[in-house]
Design brief:
By secondary structure, the protein is of the alpha/beta class. The chain is built from 15 helices and 16 strands. The strands form three sheets. The chain has a seven-stranded mixed β-sheet, sandwiched between helices. Strands 7-6-5-8-9-10 form a six-stranded parallel β-sheet, sandwiched between helices.
Length: about 450
């Protein structure tokens, strides 16, 4: 059974009930996203019959069974596959973010960079490609995909370097593009994303088990859809570039490659009907709704009137935080949509347009913007955390704020408004002791946000 590392709020030992409850509710949500359980709920074996979400595969008809994977949860997912297949699994390799590991016997773990891809990721991807090229018609490949898979499966298209992809990723993250827009470009400048991994695996039988970190669970967006038909075209990539004014800001080889694709001079990603997908099946084994629902249930268990607001929350982080703060005010004033004690749960993933030189992540920035919005309110706590345990480039999963956060910060000489403008949420919350530190949870199903009103 998955047991996430205990959540620690750095700072004062004594926490009021609301803050303690918020942490307990967040922990319950993370635990519900356990990748091992998610895989085992969809994968079973009786003798030589492998059952994948109701579809049976006769293992005796395959010469070899391989496991490949990419994403923050790939190692944990691979451990479940090893438990089910035992000696029937031939070998495998998974690319994971540094530190997101699990004890494995036959599947090799390759740790690599995220959110910016690095040489270790490229090396691991080459191993995955070599394995697939050696697989034949009588082989079965299980592909384990989870959040972070885009950065952790880097193999640039011809004429594009890893440094070019890093520059593209950095520009997309900083401009506030959505994950759908980011991955649209990443898969079009890749040799393995956007369905191209399925082409490499063909004619072997390919089954992907997917832990979703994308709003709406769009298969062609999760990890940039390496094993599914791509719905986006080069023209769509050009629209994203123009929308955010990225011409001249992204590496020139990337821009030139996209333009060649628009002119029909670069190969488009595989589309529906491509023969590469004749022997491919994609199964979602877990998503944000599991975590959000578990958080709601834990809140009810703790005595709160609880409501799951939505798992489709997206948009600019600061604006979404203001809305959540307004909901807290409404609960206090009118008892709508729930009377206190109340817990509102929301999921999804917001974006941050980076304008300042600070250090932080979208969950910490959410908590900072929310702290300003609820300043002075009694009995209100707002928490925002990433289920993967890492928020942006920091070691924190997120942060927690209450009605006293702004005053406590000002007493330490911190300026909440200036910190928000500088995108410096980590250095705002760290002195307050309000960062949420979990360590890698080995899962990733986007973010959880909580509003607690006592």
């Amino acid at each position: 059974m998955f047991a996430p590392p205990p959540v620690v709020i750095l700072g004062p030992v004594k926490l009021d009930k609301l803050r303690k409850d918020a942490i307990s509710i967040f922990e319950a949500g993370v635990k519900a996203a356990d990748p091992v359980t998610a895989v085992l709920n969809h994968l079973g074996r009786t003798g030589d019959v492998l059952d994948v979400a109701g579809t049976k595969y006769d293992l005796s008809s395959f010469d070899d069974v391989y496991a490949i994977g990419m994403g923050k949860a790939a190692a944990s997912m691979a451990s479940a596959v090893e438990d089910v297949l035992g000696g029937r699994l031939s070998r495998g390799i998974v690319n994971v973010k540094y530190g997101h590991v699990a004890p494995l016997r036959k599947v090799r773990i390759n740790e690599a960079g995220h959110p910016l891809p690095d040489d270790a990721g490229l090396s691991g991807t080459r191993e995955i490609v070599d394995l697939l090229r050696g697989a034949g018609e009588r082989d079965l490949v299980l592909c384990l995909i989870s959040g972070g898979g885009s950065a952790l499966l880097p193999m640039p298209a011809e004429g594009i370097t890893l440094a070019d992809k890093q520059g593209l990723t950095r520009a997309l993250l900083e401009c506030g593009a959505t994950i759908h827009e980011i991955n649209a470009l990443r898969k079009h400048v890749s040799a393995v994303k956007g369905g191209r991994l399925a082409r490499l695996a063909y004619p072997s039988t390919l089954v992907s088990l997917i832990l979703s970190d994308v709003i709406g669970d769009d298969l062609d967006t999760i990890a940039s859809g390496p094993t599914v038909p791509d719905s986006v075209t080069f023209e769509g990539c050009g629209e994203v570039i123009d929308k955010y004014g990225l011409r001249g800001k992204i590496p020139a080889p990337v821009e030139a490659y996209i333009d060649r694709g628009i002119r029909g001079e670069a190969e488009e990603t595989p589309k529906p009907g491509d023969p590469a997908f004749l022997k491919t099946r994609n199964v979602i084994v877990g998503s944000n709704i599991l975590s959000a629902s578990a958080a709601k249930e834990k809140a009810a268990e703790l005595g709160y009137e609880s409501l799951l607001l939505s798992t489709y929350i997206h948009g600019e982080t600061e604006e979404v935080a203001k809305v959540h703060g307004a909901i807290a005010r409404e609960i206090l004033r009118s008892g709508n949509p729930l009377g206190p004690p109340a817990c509102i749960v929301s999921g999804g993933e917001t974006t941050v347009t980076i304008d300042g030189p600070g250090f932080g992540g979208r969950n910490q920035e959410f908590a900072l913007a929310a702290a300003i919005e609820i300043d002075g309110l009694d009995n209100v706590v707002i928490l925002s955390g990433g289920t993967d345990g890492t928020d942006g480039p920091t070691d924190a999963a997120g942060a927690v704020a209450d009605g006293s956060t702004v005053k406590r910060a000002e007493a330490l000489g911190l300026d909440p408004g200036a910190s928000l403008v500088k995108n410096d949420s980590y250095n705002f919350f760290s002195p307050l002791g309000d960062l949420i530190i979990t360590g890698p949870t080995n899962t990733n199903v986007m973010d959880l946000r909580l509003i607690l009103v006592g």
